[in-house]
Amino acid sequence: MLKDFNALDYESSRNMTRETYILLNRLPYCEPKPYPTTEGIEKWIIVIILIGFLIFGLIGNSLSARIMFRRSRQGLSSYFYLALLAIADICVLYSGCLLFLLDILFGYQPQIESKFLCRLAFYIQHLVTCISAWLIVAVIIEHFIVLRYPFQSIRLCRMHIAYAISIIIFLFFSSYAVHYFFTVDILHVDLRTNEGYHPDQPICDTKNHRKLLSFIDLCFYSVIPSILILIFNILIIIVMFHAIKKRRDYLQANSYIPTEDTSQKNKNKSSSTISTQFFRSRSAESSSADRPYSQTNNEMTEQNINQKNLFNSTSATRIRLTYLLLLISFTFVVCTLPISIRPLIVDYLPSFKSTKRWRITQDCLTLLMFLNHAVNIHILRTTGQDSNEHQPYHHQQLVPIDQNQYILPRQQQQRIDQGETVD
């Protein structure tokens, strides 16, 4: 056992410090190496994608916010939510996507320069991402109220209520995210990957209750909003198909036009109805009594056609709107859920964490999250435009007379009586 023992090495090691002895006898695999970053074509693909997110996200969200704020002055609360969503998405892109671009392109992480920057970056990122998610929830819930309770929505979907809900969302998540100023710090960890050993790597992360806080963030940012969006989308689909069925029955009942081949019973019924209308009009001295029956019948037919076209266009708009909302839900869940559960599973996959595949997966999940914030305003802008500009006439121009009754304006009622459509 002592054949390969060198007494001179032992004597020399007695005069060494611990660090010097470890450096002298360390295996080649354990030599410190820089942490591997994205290189080659993979790096430039990610850089181009991130720059595209920043440019098109800024231009699209800025224009959308301007348009939505202008339309919200008409009293439409959905546009106010969409305007705030555009601003929140800009903040997400330039508080997270920009830092990610600097790390990939230059290897520079400003958030690890000081504890204050680390905590401030954590606070802003979590605040704006949660606000963005819950503004989407507010838009979906408001759309459900408009479809399911059109009369109540006249009072519920008001600007002052939208202001109050937006302030509540902001204050709640601002108060919740304050704990990051106490639970986040710059940590120095020793990492080991397939490329080698990487000691003393600085990272900005939570130092206390990391699993608990990661789970709460997962619920606030992804799980709860996704569940609410899916539930209300299902309710919207049910309400929409029920309304389509009712409209179809109504149109079938009102599309009947008497002809010469009608049975004798229907002829007698039509004659009695015409006679009754004639005597009523004579007693009321109405000018319409002198009009021939064919003209009255043509006007009734034209009115039925106009109503049918109005209902068909409204149904098509709502179907298209529901498809857009389902697309929003699917995009939101796919893009945000994986990045949210990543901190929860990282401790259970230590071997996978040390591979290059983990780094690629991490980059792809981050790109998915930023993709959601770069494109969802364009989908929601179309959604908001359809939901407000194509509402049925009885919701847009109803006048409340008491708590449970509504009437149409006089001019609009006259236009309907004359067989005209209402814009």
From TrEMBL:
Bias (Low complexity) ranges: 269-289
Keywords per UniProt: Membrane, Transmembrane, Transmembrane helix
Transmembrane segments: 44-67, 79-102, 122-149, 161-182, 220-244, 321-341
Statement: the UniProt record of this protein carries the keyword Membrane: yes
InterPro entries registered for this protein in UniProt: GPCR-Ligand_Int (IPR052954), GPCR_Rhodpsn (IPR000276), GPCR_Rhodpsn_7TM (IPR017452)
Principal location class: membrane
Region (Disordered): 260-295
Name under which the protein is recorded: G-protein coupled receptors family 1 profile domain-containing protein
Organism, as annotated: Adineta steineri
